[in-house]
Amino acid sequence: xxxxxxxxxxxxxxxxxxxxxxxxxxxxxxxxxxxxxxxxxxxxxxxxxxxxxxxxxxxxxxxxxxxxxxxxxxxxxxxxxxxxxxxxxxxxxxxxxxxxxxxxxxxxxxxxxxxxxxxxxxxxxxxxxxxxxxxxxxxxxxxxxxxxxxxxxxxxxxxxxxxxxxxxxxxxxxxxxxxxxxxxxxxxxxxxxxxxxxxxxxxxxxxxxxxxxxxxxxxxxxxxxxxxxxxxxxxxxxxxxxxxxxxxxxxxxxxxxxxxxxxxxxxxxxxxxxxxxxxxxxxxxxxxxxxxxxxxxxxxxxxxxxxxxxxxxxxxxxxxxxxxxxxxxxxxxxxxxxxxxxxxxxxxxxxxxxxxxxxxxxxxxxxxxxxxxxxxxxxxxxxxxxxxxxxxxxxxxxxxxxxxxxxxxxxxxxxxxxxxxxxxxxxxxxxxxxxxxxxxxxxxxxxxxxxxxxxxxxxxxxxxxxxxxxxxxxxxxxxxxxxxxxxxxxxxxxxxxxxxxxxxxxxxxxxxxxxxxxxxxxxxxxxxxxxxxxxxxxxxxxxxxxxxxxxxxxxxxxxxxxxxxxxxxxxxxxxxxxxxxxxxxxxxxxxxxxxxxxxxxxxxxxxxxxxxxxxxxxxxxxxxxxxxxxxxxxxxxxxxxxxxxxxxxxxxxxxxxxxxxxxxxxxxxxxxxxxxxxxxxxxxxxxxxxxxxxxxxxxxxxxxxxxxxxxxxxxxxxxxxxxxxxxxxxxxxxxxxxxxxxxxxxxxxxxxxxxxxxxxxxxxxxxxxxxxxxxxxxxxxxxxxxxxxxxxxxxxxxxxx
Length: 801
Fold this sequence. Notes:
transmembrane helix; transport; Sodium:neurotransmitter symporter family protein; about 5% strand; Hydantoin permease; SNS_sf; 3 domains; single chain; 13 strands; two-stranded antiparallel sheet; seven-stranded antiparallel beta sheet
């Protein structure tokens, strides 16, 4: 039976809107005239193409599908228009889709929303309509089809293209692939090297009190934010934060900036590991008896700097540090090229390929880690090293701020929040995945891995007779390039264990490297460039390789130290602080102003931000007690002013807060934005049996995580003052502050960042007034978000709130 096509809908181009066909929205990117015979369009494609027939008053629409774009040809009289559109948006339930295969003897039906069988006789009638209306050539007249070569077949098997989600965006092949990729991003050298060094310097079970508090109060809440917005808003950092507020595009870009700064020098770390890996095949191991000299002279190969001087009273710099070595180190460059090639291979085809790579980058290191743990714990006196950490209690350390600051920094850096790749990775999830469970699983696995892997170092410390608390402190570089290699030289079968050690470090670090780069690629692809993903990945990797070269010089180690310290202590900490406070302040802020008035909104937030800024400043300049008093005092003044200046809300607050008008005012100025963000996100990530974001999440992010991060951030300035004679530390300090400038520019002039967002999605961060009204799940991130090069934009639906 021939399917009855519905009555034609109207298809018209309107200014500021999109074409419509029977209620189905089409993206409208651009249109231009097609000149030449109509069959020339068909003949120009040698690969199988798709034909879609739409009954319309303007004529029949022929849609031809290629691997990278959709071509719409609208015939009306003698005119022809060609329009680009997303591949998933042009099928309506009133359309019949027919695939025309150049290599086939017939035109076969691929898909219709009538669910027609490919062998339905009605297909032949649709074929006749298509051939008559468009004068299409028969299959025999079409140019011979393109036959995929053997190499292309191998590439498609090894590096398959990504699956597509319902909205057309690339999608992970499985939930396990997303979890492994995310775990690989945060589980790296920071777990295997930095964590044991921090626990050594703060040895004892008391370490776990501040450590676990930071895990539950900072790491998990912030990670829930990053994953939930990426998944719900179907985009990388800039697109996701633009959905929270159009003034947060700078906040989203600042996350990408941190990864952009870290990636180049992170690869140099991996290059040094590869130098050790290469030398692990030499017998005896070349660092035997000279571990420190081998690292500094043979691997890093930097020329010692000429120290600087301060004035007698220390108030000014009389001579700056000088770095006489400027030559490029060839072997470091070579291994950097090798590492960047691995990064390129892992991400050039998208998450379809990355989803396979992560099984190797996470699975194999875990297996080798357990082998190394067994070997370490079998060393003589290894139990003594374990007892330093698991059978010792130093409660007096809890009264000092050092252990709290260190624990916060460790959790913060090892979890990986603030680099942008969690949001980017989550954007390739299914829209309604269980974001809360995924976040907890990622953090929990990271905590478990770094505490288990630390036994490698614990056993070595006992074996080498190193005693914590005796004035000797360990750092990440010392553990990875001196302590562990020294222990390896004293083991039977030293070469085998050296190969295992450095191979594990390389694979763990490499998974973190391509995660950071993938976040940048997602940013570019979300902006819909004219080039396909492989070309974009190639350009990004080449640019990053150029940024790597300064770290491959005879002063590169000192440049790395300067940039690494301040991009973490200044840039990264401030970026995550900004994530916490801006998302819970500016989300649907018009609702707050509409309920309590602008003076109340400004008074409260002025007290909140002013209290943090002045509080930590006075704490550093005078004393922590004075800083706490000033900070809380300013906050309370702002809160009281907001209560007195605010008008009575006409929307209901939750039960307890709604008992009085003062309680309602406090609710709206202090808690509404964060809670409404939670509610709207739960409409997507908390559907069905998914874990919902709990009610205490927003207060944790705003009033616990943010103030804690502001305290950690404040320690960076006194530390820099002691190093202000070093030009490389000055440079790193300045680079770290660029993140602050990006965030500020986004708040003040958000239109500067519009180029990073497709035009149809730029207005998604403008929320109309509607207190307590939930955003429908279908309206959030509903715009088709196929990565650029695979389709066109569809203008975002303007939200009702």
